[in-house]
Amino acid sequence: MPRASWDFVGGMKIIFPPANEQNQIATYLESKCLKADDLIAQKQNLIKTLDAYKKSLIFECISGKQKVI
Between 17 and which of 21, 44, 47, 49 could a Cys-Cys bridge form, CB atoms 3.0 to 4.6 Å apart? Predict the structure, then answer.
């Protein structure tokens, strides 16, 4: 597809939803993003906990405190 000229792009009409609908959309997206950020933080904490447990278990196996079956 050939590139659109500035004259063509500048003459395009863009339709925006009303301001109250824009606010509703923004509020909805913000709440979803906050939930996603919370889940990401929970998973990162779980990864840190499991990594610490893995290192501890490896140390115990190497030092002979834990027997490997």
Answer: 21
Sorted by sequence, the CB contacts under 8 Å of residue 66 that are 6+ apart come out as 57, 60
* HSE of 45, CA atoms in CB hemisphere, 13 A: 6
Percent of the chain having pLDDT more than 70? 97
N-term to C-term CA, the chain:
64
Judge contact between 39 and 45, C-beta under 8 A: no
Q: How far is CA 25 from the centre of its chain?
A: 19
Give pLDDT tens digits for 5-32.
888 888 888 899 999 999 999 999 999 9
